[in-house]
Amino acid sequence: MDAQSRGRADEIDPADQWVLNPRTGSYELQLGDSAAQQRPKVAAPRRSASAPAAPTAPSPGVPKPRRGDGPPGGRRGGRSRKGGGGGGRRKKALLITSGTLAFLLVGGAAAAYLYYDHLNGNLSVTDVAGAGTGGFKKDQAINILVIGTDKRTGAGNEDYGDKDSVGHADTTILFHVSKDRTNATALSIPRDLITNIPACPTKQPDGSTKTIAPTKSTRFNTSLGQEGRDAGCTMRTVKELTGIEVDHFMMADFNAVKTLSTAVGGVPVCLAKAVNDEEGSHLKLGPGEHRLEGEQALAFVRTRHGFGNNSDLDRIRIQQQFLGSMMREMKSKETLTSPKKFLSLAEAATKSLAVDSGIGSIAKLTDLAGELKNIDTKNVTFTTLPVKDNPAEPEGNKATVVVEKSLADPLLQMIRGDVSLTEVEKKEQAAKEAADADAKAKQDALLQGNRAPAGDVRVSVYNGGGPKGAASTTLNWLQNTKGMSKASNQGNAPAKAGATQLEYAPNQADQARALADALGLPVTALKMGTADAAAKAPMKLTLGPDFTEPGAPLSAAPAVPELSDDVQQAQADKAVCAK
């Protein structure tokens, strides 16, 4: 419901228009006195016979409608109430999931169901034939591929480049959300990157599956659209390129920039110099602060001739600055307290998005948004996959790029290892490393005591992620090679272990030292309890994924790599003037 289209954007609250007509028993769209003269009342859509029944009681946390109140926000008899406590109660009925989706549930249960169903109808859902994980878990990191296509659908968009484009992966960002939901990294992948596109099964309109053959050494942006490839092909390409499993995708075309920027009331940007891009996006702005929406916002993120050296890499930086500003705007007080903006955002976001079936409903998107909503913008880092000019192209005619492995490998290792790029997280990591060093010193001191005879060592061996049969192999090795006859094999551990660990009691320290010597366990693998064990109680050895074979040194946890200063980074909370 767009209030602006009715000429009363400053007066009409879009969340305050559904009212119950006592004569018909139906909810109707009430436009107010002047609006009603221009347009008749519109009956709220009735559910079909096959549709699920609307809830009969308000959802938990949503105020019950008072007698005579309309479900969305309390209009009585078509007249708005000014002042009083009603407005505050209506605002409390908003369920906010900003950043990914602005989703509104309103006071009356029936109207909430109708609007919920309406937003579901806005979404475009694609089955990507098995690409991605199909879900996310609360105790795991989340990787979402955000794809902006260059498909020129919509009024005015044919002026941007190839108006007949099938919709390539023009802008691609791998959004990694940390396991603990405290930080995120947004990795941009240049569209002109030369890479391999793997074989890709795609769903056809008739329900069949067609596998598109792989392509070697081609532009990354052709992983979508070209030869009928869908977003699942782009997900597979990203996985092969980065080694990172992608869980879901969200895809939007040019119209998303225009509608979302308009829904939030414009996105603030700063220009260090004037821009006049006559040959490309037609962006024309003076230096200083601007608030862009609609066509101007699209021109800003599309320009390749206004900033830097007119390359796609410079355009990526501009897009990151714009997205950071949009995130700040969505999280601002002005947006969070505006029902009108939230309704507009909900409409714009759902109409703009194409998503995979794993998140293909408002309920699933709301769950996902709930996982992301508490991440502070200061802990969101934008970066770009490091690349260099394609050496296969002649000097003076460089049109594509290739991965700069010396810079890209540490960055991708950090993302795969769920290591934040933000300064806040780095300080926390430093504190953790200091605590670990202190614990290691204490463990070193523990190992300076006596060793028990091999025949006195009692230990239960579990396989918590080592090679198949590792517990049995280790038992035989301990008994037959090391003389530890009181060791026993307990099979698979109840749960997977992150690393090999020996748990023991203080009065078993001499046994732990002997076993650590035999297996070559580092002090980081030893965990001493607080209470003494009963006589003849065994220690507990759990073999983790770092275990290869008995007696072989455990593979050390990879050190956190240091990023070169040449790796581009920008935090979402910082406004930067485009140059």
Fold and architecture overview:
The protein is α/β, with parallel strands linked by helices and 579 residues long. The protein has helices at 33-38, 86-92, 109-122, 231-242, 254-263, 294-302, 312-330, 333-336, 339-352, 362-372, 405-416, 423-446, 470-480, 509-519; strands spanning 18-21, 26-29, 42-43, 124-126, 142-149, 169-177, 184-189, 194-197, 200-203, 209-212, 215-219, 248-252, 267-271, 275-276, 284-285, 288-292, 354-356, 380-384, 387-389, 401-403, 459-463, 487-492, 501-504, 526-528, 539-543, 569-571. The protein has an eight-stranded mixed beta sheet, sandwiched between helices. A five-stranded mixed beta sheet has the order 22-21-25-23-24, covered by helices on one side.
Give the gist of this structure.
The chain is of the alpha/beta class and 579 residues long. The chain has helices at residues 33-38, 86-92, 109-122, 231-242, 254-263, 294-302, 312-330, 333-336, 339-352, 362-372, 405-416, 423-446, 470-480, 509-519, and strands at residues 18-21, 26-29, 42-43, 124-126, 142-149, 169-177, 184-189, 194-197, 200-203, 209-212, 215-219, 248-252, 267-271, 275-276, 284-285, 288-292, 354-356, 380-384, 387-389, 401-403, 459-463, 487-492, 501-504, 526-528, 539-543, 569-571.
